[in-house]
């Protein structure tokens, strides 16, 4: 029996105002100062700051409230209860499977803790292409610093597990620089279970930091409640209609009428794909047809290596080593750059992501303790062949991302597979399998290079995933190039701010959580000042 | 949620989705009139259980126990876990899978999409293996999507079960 505490259960016992699901019925209407849609990275930071400024805040989360005592380090339960579409969200042509969180804390509850500031090269592109002159490293530095302090973000001090170490070892032999990843953890047990919810509360996700702060400060949290539609007139949001949903997102048929939330100001932070979809369902003004466009995924290509030595890729901090060599050694608008990392491997993730089936794959399954899966996160949004996807609505109003995998991106998949396979062989791989339906295992670098070069790099055949969703409500200095003003307010709706990864006008080129924390920290401080006249800070 | 459009549009969207070839369009179009939904009340129908049972025996050949008795127990357990998995998926995923399984349950769908001439019950694992290999690298998107859908659901559901851990050598979660 664990002696670990559960800060959520303790907070509920203290009298936190949590409604929805099994907690308490939703009322027909709620009036507040600010309604925040979502409870992930952008929502959490905003909730803490606005509560600190003395505002009456309501947070609306579609997913469930789960906490450390629910987190059993088991994939099926975690995927079903903590991820969008049971971890099976896919793009329209099914070419990309997207891992995106869906519970209190959003993706921060299930991410692998990698924390990077927005790269200078990305900000430079935003300044040049979108006129975002205030988005520069110096201006943002204090806001990143506060977020890093609040969430205990620092380079990981424990030696990397073998799964990560082999990236450093293989890269070093090729003269490629690889570095230690900063993580948002405090007293980490080094379990490797971050993707299933942290059972020890070491991960400083929104679930255990900013959301509890806001609830202790009097905020109300609605769970299993979907923000369905804004009522809009005279350039303002008049109210927000919310409905009760089941754990699989289907509406609760026996629920009463929708809950109307009337707020002075609304903050949309449902994450990319979901945030634009709410605006689309609401018929929000979009005079320049920007809404839902430029939605980015960091499309990920993979190679699987069977190493000579034991890797136990499930064991230990999931991501602790990365390489930006292939981002920094070429022009940002040239052939697509990619960031190299590794994936933690648990049975479902490993079993479902290995291409192939039958007897041959059965042999591969038995080599699981020796397996390493390397990831190349492609930096989309910086080239006219990488314009990202477009959010659409299905007949029932749910969002669907149409993301074309262009030849330019698929060239990146090939180049990155070559880079990863070479590193894996240098690190001691016996066999490398490209993430491709027609890929077969090869046992040396020369054969692998020839095999990867011969593969048809087509969508579906090439296995592409994503764990980062960005854009769709992009920032811009004028209303023609984006949806959101540089201060976070919607270009056409004066009492709506957008505070999540959807405001990024390109992908980040790094795991995006700290980019959301830092950028939203600045936006939310500005919003608090405008609404209350008060100066507040995260840390 | 009727104000976003009638439910039958979902079906049309699915059929448009992967139908990249006139051949499959013709096959699928002919089959639609005959097909039964592959899910009822969110669970696999008998016909769908047969498809997943044969797909499971093929995809997990060499991984599942070889002896008939234990093999059947493993398959039954897999089918139950697929039902559990489906219960967590949103309505549109269930609708789409119901459509796909319904299509694969018709003779025309089985032949046109899977490329399997024998019925699901009669086809050997070798027959289905050959058909799946052709689906994997097909130039027709619907065929690749159908294969990947079956593959991913079978593998994710199988490795959801603790009994799969011995094959992998996974020790299970650490005790806290």
Topology:
The complex is a heterodimer of chains A (539) and B (176).
Chain A: H1 7-14, E1 17-19, E2 29-37, H2 41-52, E3 57-60, H3 75-82, E4 89-90, E5 96-98, H4 120-130, H5 137-150, E6 153-155, H6 162-173, E7 179-180, E8 182-184, H7 210-216, E9 220-222, E10 225-233, E11 236-244, E12 259-268, H8 274-281, E13 295-296, E14 300-307, E15 321-322, H9 325-328, E16 338-343, H10 347-353, H11 358-365, E17 371-378, E18 390-393, E19 399-402, H12 407-426, E20 429-434, H13 445-454, E21 464-466, E22 470-471, E23 496-498, H14 513-532
Parallel strand pairs in A: 1-9, 2-3, 2-12, 3-9, 5-21, 12-23
Antiparallel strand pairs in A: 4-5, 6-8, 7-15, 10-11, 11-12, 13-22, 14-17, 14-20, 14-21, 16-17, 18-19
Helix pairs in contact in A: 2-7, 2-14, 5-14, 6-12, 12-13
Chain B: H1 8-17, H2 22-32, E1 39-40, E2 43-44, H3 46-59, H4 68-87, H5 91-104, H6 107-114, H7 125-136, H8 141-158, H9 165-168
Helix pairs in contact in B: 2-6, 3-4, 3-7, 3-8, 4-8
Describe the overall structure.
The complex is a heterodimer of chains A (539) and B (176). With 539 residues, chain A is an alpha/beta fold. Chain A has 2 domains: 7-78 and 101-154 and 200-290 and 473-532, FAD/NAD(P)-binding domain, CATH 3.50.50.60; 155-181 and 295-466, Cholesterol Oxidase, domain 2. Helices cover 28% and strands 20% of the residues of chain A. In chain A, the strands form 6 sheets. In chain A, strands 1, 2, 3, 9, 10, 11, 12 and 23 form an 8-stranded mixed β-sheet that branches. In chain A, strands 4, 5, 14, 16, 17, 20 and 21 form a 7-stranded mixed β-sheet that branches. In chain A, a hairpin with a 5-residue loop joins strand 4 (89-90) and strand 5 (96-98). In chain A, helix 5 (137-150) crosses helix 14 and helix 12 (407-426) runs antiparallel to helix 13. The longest helix of chain A has 20 residues, at 407-426. Chain B has a domain at 46-161. Chain B is 63% helix and 2% strand. Chain B contains 9 helices and 2 strands, in the order ααββααααααα. The chains are: A alpha/beta (539), B mainly alpha (176). At the A-B interface, helix 3, helix 10 and helix 11 of A face helix 1, helix 4, helix 5, helix 7 and helix 8 of B.
């Amino acid at each position: 029996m664990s002696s670990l505490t559960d800060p959520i259960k303790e907070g509920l016992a203290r009298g936190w105002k949590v409604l929805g699901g099994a907690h308490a019925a939703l009322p027909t209407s709620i009036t507040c100062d600010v309604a925040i849609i979502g409870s992930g990275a952008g929502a959490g930071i905003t909730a803490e700051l606005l509560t600190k400024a003395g505002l009456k805040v309501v947070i609306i989360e579609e997913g469930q409230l789960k906490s450390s005592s629910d987190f059993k380090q088991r994939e099926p339960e975690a995927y079903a209860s903590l991820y969008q579409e049971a971890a099976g969200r896919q793009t329209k042509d099914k070419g990309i499977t997207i891992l995106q969180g869906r519970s209190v804390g959003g993706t921060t509850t299930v991410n692998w803790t990698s924390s990077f500031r927005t790269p200078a090269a990305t900000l430079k592109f935003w300044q040049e292409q979108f006129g975002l002159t205030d988005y520069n490293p110096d201006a943002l530095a204090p806001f990143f610093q506060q977020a890093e302090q609040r969430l205990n973000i620092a380079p990981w001090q424990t030696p990397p597990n073998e799964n990560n170490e082999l990236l450093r070892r293989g890269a070093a032999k090729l003269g490629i620089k690889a570095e230690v990843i900063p993580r948002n953890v405090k007293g980490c047990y080094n379990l490797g279970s971050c993707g299933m919810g942290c059972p020890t509360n070491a991960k400083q996700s929104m679930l255990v930091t900013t959301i509890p702060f806001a609830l202790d400060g009097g905020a109300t949290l609605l769970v299993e409640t979907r923000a369905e539609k804004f009522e809009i007139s005279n350039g303002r949001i008049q109210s927000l209609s919310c409905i009760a949903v089941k754990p699989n997102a289907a509406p609760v048929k026996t629920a009463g009428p929708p809950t109307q939330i009337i707020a002075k100001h609304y903050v949309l932070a449902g994450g990319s794909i979901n945030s634009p979809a709410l605006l689309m369902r609401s018929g929000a003004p979009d005079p320049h047809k920007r809404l839902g466009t430029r939605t980015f995924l960091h499309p990920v290509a993979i190679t699987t290596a069977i190493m000579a030595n034991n890797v136990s890729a499930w064991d230990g901090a999931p991501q602790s080593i990365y390489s930006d060599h292939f981002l920094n050694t070429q022009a940002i608008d040239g052939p697509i750059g990619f960031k190299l990392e590794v994936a933690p491997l648990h049975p479902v993730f490993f079993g479902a992501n290995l291409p192939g089936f039958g007897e041959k794959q059965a042999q591969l399954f038995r080599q699981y303790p020796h397996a390493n899966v390397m990831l190349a996160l492609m930096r989309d949004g910086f080239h006219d062949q990488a314009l990202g996807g477009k959010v659409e609505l299905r007949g029932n109003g749910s969002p669907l991302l149409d993301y074309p995998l262009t030849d330019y991106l698929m060239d990146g998949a090939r180049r990155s597979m070559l880079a990863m396979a070479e590193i894996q062989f240098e690190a001691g791989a016996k066999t490398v399998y490209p993430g491709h339906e027609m890929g077969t295992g090869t046992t040396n670098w020369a054969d692998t290079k020839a095999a990867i070069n011969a593969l048809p790099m087509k969508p579906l055949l090439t296995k592409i995933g994503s764990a980062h969703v960005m854009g769709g409500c992009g920032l811009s200095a004028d209303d023609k190039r984006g949806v959101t003003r540089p201060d976070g307010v919607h270009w056409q709706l004066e009492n709506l701010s957008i505070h999540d990864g959807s405001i990024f006008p390109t992908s980040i080129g790094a795991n995006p959580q700290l980019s959301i924390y830092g950028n939203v920290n600045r936006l939310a401080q500005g919003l608090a000042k405008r609404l209350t006249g008060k100066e507040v800070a995260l840390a | 949620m009727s104000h976003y459009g009638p439910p039958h549009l979902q079906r049309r969207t699915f059929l448009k989705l992967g139908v990249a070839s006139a051949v499959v369009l013709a096959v699928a179009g002919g089959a639609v009139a005959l097909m039964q939904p592959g899910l009822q009340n969110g669970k696999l129908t008998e016909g769908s259980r047969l498809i997943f049972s044969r797909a499971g025996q093929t995809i997990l050949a060499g991984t599942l126990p070889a002896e008939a008795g234990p093999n059947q127990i493993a398959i039954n357990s897999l089918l139950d876990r697929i039902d559990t998995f489906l219960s967590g998926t949103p309505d549109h995923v269930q609708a789409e899978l119901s459509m796909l399984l319904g299509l694969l349950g018709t003779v025309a769908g089985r032949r046109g999409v899977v490329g399997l001439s024998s019925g699901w019950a009669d086809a050997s694992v070798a027959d289905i293996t050959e058909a799946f290999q052709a689906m994997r690298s097909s130039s027709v998107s619907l065929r690749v999507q159908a294969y990947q859908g079956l593959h991913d659901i079978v593998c994710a559901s199988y490795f959801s079960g603790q009994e799969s851990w011995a094959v992998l050598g996974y020790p299970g979660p650490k005790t806290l």
